[in-house]
Predict the 3D structure of the following.
Amino acid sequence: MNDYIRKWHDIILNCSFDNTYKMAWAKALVELAVHTDVSIDKNAIVYSFYDVAKLCLKYYWNQTIYFDLIQSPNIRKPPEIITLTKKLIKLYFDKKQSVKPVRFEKVDFHSLGLSTKYEWTVSKIVKTLKQDVCWRFKKLKGKTYEIYDLDLNAGNVIFQSDHVLALKEHSDYLFTFINYRWTQMLEGFNYSPRISRKVRAIDDGEIRRGSLKKFHKYLDLMNENGKRICFYCGHEIAENELSVDHVIPWSYMFSDDLWNLVYCHKGENSGKSNRLPSEEDIARLEQRNRLLLARMNNKSKDYIQLQIAIEKDYVRKFWISFKG
């Protein structure tokens, strides 16, 4: 392994942490290196804190808007960058009048009239990176690894050109390793399942939610007098108002499971967002699953999966886990 890359390996593997800032910082620097046209005639490559901050915001936006992943052990006092990111997401939802998640790369803050708030958020992230992250990242067990220089007054991170070339050449390894460590940290803070899949999906741009129409044939078994009934309000649902909802939100489960799906009105689905259900809803879902199982063809694959979910008490176990 390249000696310079070994230093990065040692820092990422052994760094102390009380949140995921160092992984976001490391990932942003590697991403900037990947997009740099390195000239052997250049003695130094300079990146601004502003550009690093924009990438950090991108990472936290995508992890938060889709999965609301917790980034530190202190749930009551989340890291400042997460608080800033959530405020910007809320403004985005308010402007769009929708809580449908969208990747950061697809958001046009200017057209939404959020340019000023976006720039303010990035400036606040820059301040945090300067104060708490950039110099701490280089320190390991009392030793400072000289992997880059800092000009805090100018707001720049300065690399030797051959070091940027090394980051670029080993970027695939570094991205994989950074994501692995980030995932390890997240697993210490979150009860959510499939953390590694979520981080990988965000990184690969593969967050796709499949059509739920294939579940209609089963959910229709619960119709009353041929009418589709809303799980939450108990009233009939008109065809143009029909929606399939994840009782335990998709952002927690990252999967479509029959035992967790119900009919409801579109308005109730969007208004519910990613809030966890009440215990009353959980009890009704358990009862619904038992009744649905009794009405299904016991030779189907979906029947077996629903049967396993009931036997293993998935509804209550996942709900209690996420409440924690």
Observations:
- Strands lie at 44-48, 139-140, 143-144, 149-151, 156-160, 242-246, 261-265.
- The mean pLDDT is 91.
